[in-house]
Specification:
Number of strands: 41
Shape: elongated
Distance between the termini: 31 Å
Number of domains: 4
Strand order of the largest sheet: 6-5-4-3-2-1-35-32
Structural class: mainly beta
């Protein structure tokens, strides 16, 4: 079976909800007695039934991209909710196992099946199937992992509180608190004339940077950093302890280059005309190409993003990186490699490279991310330093459920009085001995539609549903302008345009 796409949370409202494939499913309680499933963008023309005795199927596969089915609740116990429509033409099932323990963790699964029955006994055509094996991507399995300081979560993941034993839904990306380190900075003194300096001592240079003594000496104005003519023989720049990721610039040849190490730019290291540019800059991967087959872990450039082919795919070809989809967190084929900054090259500028963003704990016990590489000292320490906002930005606060004051900003408790929510999800193309299908979409709703009576001289589209002369519901199979000769069921040719939609009757 192929792996299908996921479902989960409305990031705007923060409510638990079924949405498009960039999200994940989350269980809700209080399900209604009847639901409506709308199958759209499903087209089975040209495919066989899929079973070994397919030649016995007496009618071609069902073609109708917008059919609605009304399903009745058949089960709601033990963490399982089930709905079904089973008549002479179709069998439709919707099942959710929304909180269950499988021996390694709490998980939830969704099944959706649509079969068309035939006149041949035991012969059914599976038109749409998604289920246990392929509703989740492995790396995004909806499993309750313990919520600890060392655990990261993305929106839609679920966590188990080790303090309360309750399950919680992540509604805001949560970085592991252990990623934030204790701030450490320099304590330089003012440079003085006629003073003995020992190796390792720190002073302020005349340009406001920090330098470290590399040769024991007695200072003179000729060795004063950075205005003395011989200062470089006694002093060197203190290491830049904090960085803001990896800068990427466009070289003089129009190609993109990434910064290898923190440095201040000048014409000698400009890519690619500077004589020493290769020490400071490296060539970026090639731009993404729809005709290239990407293997596991292969990296490409896509606009102002560095993307990597997901590890579990080896034939990634023609799949456009969905970088607008919350930074590819839920992209089926690609993921964004974070902490890359696309900018322009200019002389005299400090560029960051050689690692990701530095993160530290501020004096207010909140998490901060470095936005500019720098030498740390008291003036730029968050949040007591006078210039800290030039170098750091707030990113995170502790959020252990039921313990930290702001935990509700990151978590929603999963409980059975969560309101029933509606939405839709996708599954991907499947072809095997049991299933033949194309990209399809299923809408899930508690609203039971009211079908209108048939009208003459009306433009009906595939999927439109009307009430016929016999008060049964019929689904349009072919786009057409209605006339009395195709009226269901009194028209002489109605059967060419309509099909009885027994399941729509509830």
């Amino acid at each position: 079976m192929s792996i299908g796409k996921s479902i989960h949370v409305d990031k705007v409202s923060g409510k638990v909800k079924f949405l498009e494939s960039q999200n994940k499913v989350i269980a809700t309680c209080g399900f209604p007695q009847r639901i409506t499933l709308t199958f759209s963008d499903i087209h089975e023309a040209g495919f066989s039934c899929g079973y070994t005795y397919e030649d016995d199927c007496d009618t071609p596969p069902w073609v109708n991209p917008n059919r609605k089915f009304i399903l009745n609740k058949t089960a709601d116990a033990g963490g399982v909710i089930a709905y079904e429509c089973n008549d002479t033409i179709f069998r439709v099932r919707f099942i959710m196992q929304y909180i269950t323990y499988d021996g390694s963790g709490f998980r939830r699964y969704v099944w959706v099946y649509l079969y068309r029955k035939t006149a041949i006994a035991y012969c059914i055509c599976p038109l749409f199937m998604s289920g246990w094996e392929h509703i989740w991507q492995d790396e995004f399995s909806d499993e309750f992992q313990p919520i600890t300081d060392s655990a990261s979560f993305i929106v839609g993941n679920t966590g188990l509180s080790i303090n309360t034993g309750e399950q919680y839904l992540c509604i805001k990306h949560r970085r592991a608190w252990s990623d934030y380190k204790v701030w450490s900075g320099y304590t330089p003194s003012n440079w003085q004339d006629n003073k003995q300096y020992n190796v390792g001592e720190l002073v302020w240079a005349t340009n406001g940077d920090i330098v470290i003594c590399n040769t024991q000496h007695t200072s003179t104005f000729s060795t004063q950093p950075v205005t003395g003519e011989s200062w470089t023989g006694k002093w060197q720049w203190a290491t830049y302890s904090y960085r803001h990721g990896v800068d990427i610039v466009t070289g003089t040849d129009g190609k993109k280059y990434y910064c290898r190490r923190i440095h201040t730019s000048d014409p000698s290291n400009k890519p690619i005309t500077g004589g020493s540019w290769g020490l400071y800059w490296g060539s970026c991967p090639a731009e993404w190409n729809s005709n290239t087959t990407y293997t596991s872990g292969q990296v490409a450039m896509y606009g102002d993003n560095v993307v990597r082919s997901r590890y579990n795919y080896v034939n990634n070809k023609g799949h456009t990186p969905d970088v607008d989809n919350d930074s590819c967190l839920y992209d089926y084929w690609w993921e964004v490699i974070f902490d890359h900054n696309f900018t322009n090259w200019s002389s005299g500028r400090l560029y960051s490279g050689g690692g990701g963003n530095s993160r530290i704990v501020g004096t207010d016990n909140k998490g901060y991310k470095c936005i500019k590489a720098h030498q740390p000292h008291a003036d730029n320490r968050p949040i007591t330093g006078s210039s800290w906002q030039d170098y750091w930005e707030f990113e995170y606060k502790k959020n252990t459920p039921e313990i930290d004051p702001d935990w509700k900003e990151y978590w929603a408790k999963i409980k059975c009085d969560t309101l029933f929510q509606e939405g839709r999800f996708l599954v991907n193309e499947q072809m095997d001995e049991f299933v033949t299908g194309r990209w399809g979409k299923v809408e899930f709703s508690a609203e039971i539609p009211e079908f209108l009576v048939w009208l003459c001289d009306y433009e009906y589209k595939v999927g439109d549903m009307v009430v016929g002369d016999d008060q049964q519901v019929y689904a349009c199979e072919i786009d057409h302008t209605s006339f009395f000769d195709n009226k269901p069921v009194s028209g002489t040719s109605w059967n060419d345009y309509w099909i009885l939609a027994e399941c729509a009757g509830g």
